[in-house]
Amino acid sequence: MNPHQAYYDAVTKMEEAGVDSEFIQGWQSGYWLNPEREEQRITDAYKAGYEKGKEKDPTGFEEWVKK
């Protein structure tokens, strides 16, 4: 199995569900342990995604689905 398959699957699932792009970008950055954005560019969605991504947790994005 591709070592990055879990990452790809999680991002694809979020995109298909219509999750806020800020959450997805945060999740991706957290997953790879990239430094957070500069403070003035951090949104609630980004921060929530970043925390989930650091844990490599692909769940809990439902509240960030754009209606």
What can you tell me about this protein's structure?
30% of the residues are buried. The protein is mostly helical. The protein has helices at residues 5-17, 21-31, 44-54. It has three helices and no strands. The longest helix is centred in the N-terminal third of the chain and has 13 residues, at 5-17. The model has no long low-confidence stretch (mean pLDDT 95). The protein starts with a helix and ends in a 13-residue tail after the last helix. Helix content is 52%, strand content 0%.
Name the descriptors:
single chain, 67 residues, mainly alpha, globular
Largest sheet: number of strands, sense, barrel closure: none
Which percent band covers the strand fraction? Answer: under 5%
Low-confidence stretches: none
Q: Give the SSE string.
A: HHH
Number of strands: 0
Mean pLDDT, to the nearest integer, reads 95
Q: Overall 3D geometry?
A: globular
Tally of helical runs: 3
Helix content: 40-55%
Rg over CA atoms? 11 Å
- Kindly name the structural category: mainly alpha
Question: In whole angstroms, how far apart are the ends?
Answer: 34 Å
